[in-house]
Amino acid sequence: MNPVPRYRVKPRLRPERAPGTREGNASGRHRGSAPVDAGGRPARTVTWSRSGEAVVLFVRGRTARTAAPVAAVVGTVLSAVNEGHLVLDGGDAATWIRVGVNYLVPYCVASVGFLSANRERRRR
Length: 124
Hints:
By secondary structure, this protein is mostly helical. Helices cover 48% and strands 0% of the residues.
């Protein structure tokens, strides 16, 4: 009876890749593609560790790129469902304030989501 031949698994060699194509970020927290800008350079990441820094990022509009499209879609749907009949009838000032709130709330929620995903935890 012949023994079962044992096969040795060869290690797979990874080819060299261009910077930022499938490498993790510098902190090693995330796997996958590192963000790059239009010129192929590593993109600046927005991180914060104190609540005051998060407020500054929100006020300066750093969350707008991700929050504005979400607010546009969700705000339009909410306004159509909740105030659509009032808007079609002309609507008064209170109607337009409610429509504005329908856009403002999803914008704030998406901004908080963006900021929580980019929070840098303080090391103890």
